[in-house]
Amino acid sequence: MRTPIIAGNWKMNKDMQSAKELARGLVSKNARFRDREIILFPPYPFLPAVAGLCQDSRLEVGAQDISEHEAGAFTGEVSAEMVVSTGATWTIAGHSERRNYHLETDEIVNNKVKRALSAGLNVILCVGENLRERERGAAFDVVQRQTERGLAGLDQDAMGHVVLAYEPLWAIGTGKTATPRQAQEIHEFLRWVIQRMFDNATAEDLRILYGGSVKPGNINGLMAQKDIDGALVGGASLDVESFSAIINFEV
Ligand code: PEP
Q1: Residues spanned by the domain of 141
Q2: CATH code of the domain containing 126
């Protein structure tokens, strides 16, 4: 049985005060869950405060990205070790906004995954096709390539600290969600890719999240799918009520 994960990617939103208010609200509303993991991904400056507020709760905290480098002359970059020192335990790698706006290649993403794991962070690796790729029937090839390259060089043990997120670009921040069936089809395929790369047990244990305009109104349909183990939520994670409603999905 895979424990579901509901993760909130705050992106470049909030200030210190509103970030703390959101974290406090989520901690007090969602203290009772035992059967699901909740992870918050605030911007870097708010990590220590949010990690502190979540410390004695069920909520975990992570960074939205890390540097592929360990330390040194990399102005503006934040290392995995720095993130660990804030009390955060997760990072995202390969979010489509990093791949597109910051030209991150699969190789860079793979370096980030490895850096995160060696610093002791858990990683959510994002994969997903854009609209053009979907329309020309390349969605499966794209997610397979991103997964294989993003996880290259990892062993079964390392995979215990990895979660995949399928985030079709055409559904991110657009209000368009993949149908539960479209998402399930890709998730099932990704599990097969993992089974081929590693083994049956690794594939069975891996949590695969869906991301792309997840809202209180569509989470139940998505979570009813066999291979959807949770959600990576952008816009709807910025508000206590809407994110809590998603966390409260029905099983
Ligand atoms: C995301 O950026 O990871 C995301 C899924 O955003 P949204 O929920 O706003 O589509």
Answers
A1: 5-247
A2: 3.20.20.70
